[in-house]
Amino acid sequence: MTSPQNWLNDLNPQQRQAVTAGTGQILVLAGPGSGKTRVLTQRIAYLVGGPGVRPYNILAVTFTNKAAREMETRLRHLLDEASADLWLGTFHAICARILRREADFLPFKSNFVIMDADDQQALVKRSLKELKLDEKLYRPPSIHAAISTAKNHLVDAPEMTVRSYRDEVVRRVYEQYQKLLRNNNAVDFDDLLMVAVRLFEENPAVREKYARRFEHVLVDEFQDTNLAQYKLLQQLSSYHNNIFVVGDEDQSIYRWRGADYMNVLRFEEEHREAQKILLEQNYRSTQTVLDAARAVIDRNPNRTHKRLFSDRGRGERIVLFEAADDHAESAYVVDTISKLINKGNAKGADFAVMYRTNAQSRLLEEAFLRAGLPYRLVGAQRFYGRREVKDLIAFLRLVQNPADEISLQRVINVPPRGIGDKTLVALQLKARQVGTSPGAIVLDLGLRADESSFWNTFTGRGAAVLADFGAMLNGWGKNLDETPLPALFDRILTELGYQAYIQDGTEEGEDRWGNVQELRRLAYEYKERGLVVFLENLALVSDQDTLPEKPDAPTLLTLHAAKGLEFGRVFIVGLDEGLLPHSRSFDDVEEMAEERRLFYVGVTRAKDHLYLVRAERRSTYGQFEVNEASRFLEDLPDELVQHEGAVRPWKAGKTSGESWYGQKQQPRLERWQSNLRQGAGAGKAESSANMVQPRYRPAMRVRHAKWGEGMVVGSKVVDGEEEVDVMFSGVGLKRLLASLAVLEILNG
DNA sequence: AAGGCCCTTCTTTTT
DNA sequence: GAAGGGCCTT
Questions:
Q1: Catalytic member of A116, A221, A322, A388
Q2: Global pTM value
Q3: What's the rounded Cα separation, in Å, for the pair A224 and A33?
Q4: Tens-digit pLDDT profile for residues A547-579
Q5: What is d(CA A58, CA A170) in angstroms, rounded to the nearest whole number?
Q6: N or C: chain A end with fewer CB closer than 10 Å?
Q7: What is the rounded CA–CA span in Å between residue A9 and residue A216?
Q8: Helix (H) and strand (E) counts for chain A?
Q9: Which residues fall within 8 angstroms of residue A181, CB to CB, at 6 or more apart?
Q10: What is the tens place of the pLDDT at every residue in A13-47?
Q11: From the C1' of B10, which residue's alpha carbon is nearest?
């Protein structure tokens, strides 16, 4: 172990103060690049090496697997094998661990599975179906979001406040959704946190067991905690009251997931005697980058002002490039990168390209491919989202937990074995009737074939095919504890004939088989730890954690994924109103403040050189739209910015309060809307005199030959064609092309 | 039962 | 511009 004294000397006074702070509550507000992770890990090393705290009595919580891994690596250097006893992990992983240990107190078994985002969606759909609610009216993503929000706020279905019929629907779906989860011996992401908090609330003895153990609790990215997480930390530190939290309000970007940076203020409020330490020295960026970042973030309220400084000097000015359209935007990025690489001024790994939405990566990828330049894409390509990967995970999940209906439904007919809708419905119905899971019926059929009491439930070949499937499943589940995971994996592949099914001679088939092998490699890494741990990690590891191994290539990633990283040269693309800030944030000041923080996070990733890029026009779903420059660009001090290839002289002749086109600025929202209006008709319609005028107006009554009478609810011209939305009584909403449909206008 | 075609919808961000 | 769902055909 390195002697503490040695590395303490390498810390600045504030860092040292944080690392060596005494017991009690400590709040470290750490600006970007201020050595936050270093402080956190060295604090742990200090606690062990100085006051002699046993690693066993320390809990360190992070938000992402990436952060947990990084801390783990650093700690291994500082503490060697002593670090093994330490509890270090993401909130979700730590909760899963607690719930498995304490399953006796809980309404599910310790081999529960964790439902991922897709599963959760499927469960919501199923709940809606069982309650006979219309998916069109109650969009599953939106219902799920409401349920998730409730859980993040520790609100159960019965405790929900119901102010509208919709609230009532959400409450009922929530109830059904929970029932399904429990029937499936499953939890979702949000349950992991909420159930843990409830467990501790209802069983003080259990809480105390953990609280006594954890003499010191340390938390990373504290600004991103939601209520459940805040509460959990309170509970876990309730015995020794030593809690050390590190965070930065300015980098809180997960509001939509329930995160509340006000927890930082709340922490101060609840712990008046807490020590507060500010880390303001930045070791990452040039002063130019920091000044720009500050100009952007200082416009947000409710924050501790920090004065970030760097001794790296002013550095290069920020480049602002305005492209004519989104293709030109991507081309500019790739051209600039390849020029710098070819000149020998930089290497691929120095670069990152950041964007607001995953959809923006497509054009960039195409541009990189065209230029023959390798790149690394974080997330989005979704290894774990691939069909073959999900299939095999579903089989493994079924082996662990035959009650998992979502997985059963997914693979019961994979590869096709003649089980269709009819058989499936009969199976589910029977399961409900006898109060068991469909999986249990399949297993019973597999075990006893025509001796099974379920044999006669199914017509035709149904029972036999299900029995075959059940027999396979039985075989896989036998002697599970003695079967090494890779062996189980191979057995499943063989008995399914999965390779032949996947490798169909096409290139895509090869690709898919490659993914299967990749998953097998991963399973091999878990051969010591076993199936349960493997599946848990699959559920809790995101695509964001899978960075393709392509050394020395530029990285493409969302601004969210960029948090915690740094790059020599950073491109932020899509700096347009509507994209960054995203249009969804226009009518909510808190959302808008978060967009600003997101931009701030992006800016502060840059060590040496920042490129801000936007496009006058871009195609957001198929159609071109004209966008205005992001409002955030206007906050950048002119002297920090150098314009390149502008479409028009940006901010030219700008005097205060006026924009570059020399008019008094309209309020933002109006500008956005008028943009939309102009954008929609721009191009063919605006320039030509014979612009198509809608014939139908809302509230008109019309008659259709097939659907009878209805009322026009909307009409718009798309590509010179009028599209009319008509609500027909008894039929519902229909969209018709005015030029084709025979619509009789009954009144105008 | 399965596969193909057309239509719709959508996009924020993720443990 | 993609992906999923519904509806059609075989």
A1: A221
A2: 0.82
A3: 17
A4: 666 678 999 999 999 999 999 999 999 999 999
A5: 40
A6: C
A7: 24
A8: 28, 21
A9: A115, A123, A187, A188, A191
A10: 999 999 999 999 999 999 999 999 999 999 999 99
A11: A621
